Amino acid sequence: MEINKMYKIALQYKQNAYTPYSNYNVGCCVKDTDGNYFGGCNIENASFSPTICAERTAISKMVSEGCKLIDTILIIGDSDFTYPCGVCRQVIKEFSNEDTRIIVARNEKDYKIYNIEELLPHGFSGDDVNV
């Protein structure tokens, strides 16, 4: 099943997280519309603002490989369900459509599925700048 594969990828990347300040590791797996998988982890920085979340790491990898549309994104953290922060929700919106699935998971069998409108209602998009 797709969720099992994505969970295993996210778990692998979660173990690579660099979190000396929060000790809160997050892993992510993005599947693009071509069926490619991209993993990511959070990477902290002492000055905090350069910190990058796992979701943005994986999405950046996807975009740098030439894909611009997320099919599914799965996020896991060190506690209960780990949801994308506001910045990540905005980045997900940029590369998603109404069919994009956002999955937050505790494990391979305990997860919730959302779309971007549920997590970022009234989000800002290219339509708002007449693009």
Helix and strand element order:
HEEHEHEEH
Number of domains: 1
Report the C-alpha radius of gyration, rounded: 14 Å
DSSP, total strands: 5
Query: What's the helical proportion of residues?
Result: 25-40%
CATH architecture tag: 3-Layer(aba) Sandwich
How far is the first residue's CA from the last residue's CA?
37 Å
What is the topology, as strand order, of the major beta sheet?
2-1-3-4-5
Largest sheet: 5 strands, mixed
- What are the segments in which pLDDT stays under 50 over at least 5 consecutive residues? none
Q: For the residues shown, what is the average pLDDT?
A: 95
Strand content: 15-25%
Structural class: alpha+beta
The CATH homologous superfamily is termed Cytidine Deaminase, domain 2
Write down the oligomeric state. Answer: single chain
Q: What is the count of DSSP helices, taking H or I runs of 4+ residues?
A: 4
InterPro entries: APOBEC/CMP_deaminase_Zn-bd (IPR016192), CMP_dCMP_dom (IPR002125), Cyt/Deoxycyt_deaminase (IPR050202), Cyt_deam_tetra (IPR006262), Cytidine_deaminase-like (IPR016193)
Organism: Finegoldia magna (Peptostreptococcus magnus)
GO cellular component, one term: cytosol
Keywords: Hydrolase, Metal-binding, Zinc
What does this molecule look like?
The chain is an alpha+beta fold and 131 residues long. It is built from four helices and five strands, in the order αββαβαββα. A five-stranded mixed sheet has the order 2-1-3-4-5. The protein is globular, with a radius of gyration of 14 Å. The mean pLDDT is 95. This enzyme scavenges exogenous and endogenous cytidine and 2'-deoxycytidine for UMP synthesis. Belongs to the cytidine and deoxycytidylate deaminase family. One of its GO terms (biological process) is nucleobase-containing small molecule metabolic process.
